[in-house]
Write a structure and sequence with these properties.
- The chain is α/β, with parallel strands linked by helices and 339 residues long.
- It folds into two domains: 191 residues, Rossmann fold, CATH 3.40.50.1170; 135 residues, Rossmann fold.
- The protein has an eight-stranded mixed β-sheet, sandwiched between helices.
- Helix 4 packs parallel to helix 12, helix 8 runs antiparallel to helix 13 and helix 9 runs parallel beside helix 10.
- The longest helix has 13 residues.
- The protein is globular.
- The termini are far apart.
């Protein structure tokens, strides 16, 4: 039986580091180095490896991920595995999910432990990602699964996965939904298919639109006794300091401190502003609490409701919409199905 053809695209990150003369870990390993570290890959798939970049994922940007999506669309492989750093995996994987609508698996993986440490997890994560990309159930349901993240023998939907710890090996989780599948021995054990109606609807709005100019989105995190003065400053500044949109990481079911409400109203009047749960996932309330900074009043005053999206993912979706030239009303329609 012919083995699946899997194309590995290496971007850099901890998985691709090596120590310099001082012992500090530096970017440097390429795709071929990663493949050589996992001899078992040859027994699982026909591998083609390509080095795209050698940077930490904290230095990746929208333009690079849009270019990566274009490259992936042109590949003839049966599945694609992207290796990168963990700092932005929850964001880059979601952006790829918005940009790609393929009937083949696309998987992002990374490492928490660098190659100089005992038991680095990079080789195991790469092998697991390739096994997932080759799995018959995954390939049969690739369109329904969307872009996936594979870490520590679990498979997550890109729309739901979060990095929940800065350093531990089990840093990734889908706190709202759980994993889609798990790896046991050399098997992929399916657990669920994700609900993707909101992603499908978003793609329809984005379909045919070319990635336009950068449209930076500010993130404002609400906390105890927040004044809202930074929001007021951005709203009042010439060209809003270059920001084209904003995301508010709101308290509870969609609330802000009352003393911040002037800033909230000003930023929402100036640029499209999305409310997302600072707790990390929704869905938010829509019509329960009253008062000037409640979800009822915020929605009446033009705030766009981010539903169940983490503020970081809401930012990714908002900037993608703005780069595509969508109007404020169209952006609202994109976010509404997320709850």
């Amino acid at each position: 039986m012919q083995k699946p053809r899997i194309h590995i695209l290496a971007l850099g990150g901890t998985i691709a580091t090596s120590p310099d003369a001082t012992g500090a870990m530096q970017m440097g390993l390429g795709a071929d180095d990663l493949v050589r570290a996992v001899p078992l890959l040859a027994s699982v798939a026909e591998i083609e490896a390509e080095t795209v970049s050698r940077v930490g994922s904290h230095s990746l940007g929208f333009d690079q991920i849009n270019a990566l999506a274009a490259k992936i669309r042109g590949l003839k492989a049966d599945g694609i595995v992207v290796t990168q750093g963990t700092d932005t995996t929850e964001e880059t994987s979601f952006l790829l999910d918005l940009l790609l609508d393929l009937d083949k698996p696309v998987i992002v993986t990374a490492a928490m432990r660098n190659p100089s440490l005992t038991s680095p997890d990079g080789p195991g994560n790469l092998l697991a990602a390739v096994r997932v990309a080759c799995d018959p159930w995954v390939r049969a349901h690739a369109k329904a699964l969307g872009v996936m993240v594979v870490m520590l023998d679990e498979v997550y939907a890109a729309a739901d996965v979060l990095k929940v710890h800065p350093t531990r090996i089990n840093a990734f989780a889908s706190t709202q939904t759980g994993p889609l599948a798990a790896l046991v021995e050399d098997r992929v054990v399916p657990m669920s298919l994700p609900v993707r109606d909101a992603i499908t609807a978003a793609r329809k709005h984005l379909a045919g639109a070319k990635d336009g100019k950068a449209a930076p989105v500010a993130v404002f995190w609400m906390s105890l006794d927040e004044t809202g003065r930074v929001m007021e400053a951005v709203a009042s500044a010439p060209d809003h300091l270059g920001y084209k949109g904003a995301v508010i990481g709101a308290m509870g079911g969609g609330h802000t401190p009352e003393r911040a409400i002037a800033g909230v109203h000003k930023i929402a009047a100036a640029i499209p502003t999305v409310v997302a749960p600072r707790a990390g996932g929704g869905p938010l309330l829509r019509a329960t609490y009253g008062g000037p900074s409640s979800e009822i009043e915020l929605r009446k005053n033009g705030l766009i409701w981010g539903g169940r999206l983490h503020p970081l993912k809401a930012r990714i979706l908002l900037e993608t919409c703005l780069r595509a030239g969508l109007s404020r009303s169209a952006v609202t329609e994109v976010f509404d199905p997320f709850g």
